[in-house]
Amino acid sequence: MNGLWQCFFIFVVATALGVPEDDIQIVCKEQYVHITWKVSKSMTVNPARLLLGNCLPSRFSNTSTGEAEAEFIVQLSDCGFKQMSTWKYVIYENKLTYRPLPKPYPPSFTYPVRCVSDKPNAWIPYFQSSTSGVIQGHGDLAFHMTILNHDFSGPAESNIFPLDSFVPIWAGVDQQTHQPLLLLLEECVASTTLEMYPDTLTYPLITNKGCLVDGKKSHSKFLPRYQSSSILLHLQAFRFAAGQEVYIHCKLIAWDPDNLNELKKACNYNKDTGEWELLDDPSKNSLCQCCDSTCIERSRRDTQSAAQGLVLNSVLGPLTITEDSS
């Protein structure tokens, strides 16, 4: 794990109230971030209005001057951090906000936070590593996602893929001291932008809580697993935005392998039979029957049982799909 985080850069930009740089200190670590925020008197009335993403301060203390200090010590897989993976870097982004009035009123102050690390060229997926095994830790989760080369032995050497060639995408989660976890891709779309906006043009790849819908019009499919905590998506390069830079936006979920249901699954489309098949247990293909309609929540318990920190939004790219297959 330490090899993945060789070098850190921290980018922070203040907006709205123009807080001096010294009032917010950010230290990025391998799996967590430590933020100290000197809060002005106007913000000290209700500490619950101070947020990092969706998390309250880990510690809040008043000072003799009437000001206060809010401290956040949180995992990069928690609090709504967005993970992005470019060709050279792994990036985590979030925002500090002060929201004096509840939603839908906008915050009066925002302070973007970005932690960026180099992605070593020598990194390879854990299922291919001779040193893989039980990872010791404190029960925290770390998600990974990258594009592999054709034989799955390491990262792709180029981000250019001819139309109809295959883009091997690997995603995984470090289990550490957790019980065995199943890594799922709940939703994935392609777009031409790093950020998603309401009017962003997208191309759906995985929808309906784990249904690989692109497989109905192509040869894209989930490959058999090497281990439950990682997943391989063999994505056939599509015509959408050919020649432009494309980003793959995915929602990653770590789940209980013994609790698959209509909302937590990975489904391939079998063109020969015209049926959907469950990647992890063909005897339960019925869980995929909703892929051609709407996979709905049958009980609130399914979604609420996922502990905070088991879900991460990740962005992969940019990659370019060319129409020249030569």
Written overview of the protein:
The chain contains one helix and 20 strands. The chain has 326 residues and is mainly β. The strands form four sheets. Strands 1, 4, 7, 8, 9, 11, 13, 14, 17 and 20 form a ten-stranded mixed sheet that branches. The two termini are 38 Å apart.
Quick structural gist:
This protein has 326 residues and is mostly beta strands. It is 2% helix and 40% strand.
What's the mean pLDDT score?
A: 80
Give the helices and strands as they follow along the chain: EEEEEEEEEEEEEEEEEEEHE
Q: Biggest sheet: strands, sense, closure?
A: 10 strands, mixed
**Helical content band:** under 10%
Structural class: mainly beta
Low-confidence parts: 1-18, 126-139, 300-309
Q: In what range is the share of β-strand residues? A: 35-45%
Count the beta strands: 20
The 3D shape can be described as elongated
Q: Measure the end-to-end span.
A: 38 Å
Secondary-structure blueprint:
Elements: E1 8-12, E2 24-28, E3 32-39, E4 50-52, E5 59-62, E6 68-75, E7 82-85, E8 89-98, E9 109-118, E10 142-147, E11 160-162, E12 166-174, E13 182-191, E14 202-206, E15 221-222, E16 230-236, E17 245-255, E18 267-270, E19 275-278, H1 300-304, E20 311-322
Parallel strand pairs: 7-20, 11-20
Antiparallel strand pairs: 1-9, 2-3, 3-6, 4-8, 5-6, 7-8, 8-9, 10-12, 12-16, 13-14, 13-17, 15-16, 17-20, 18-19
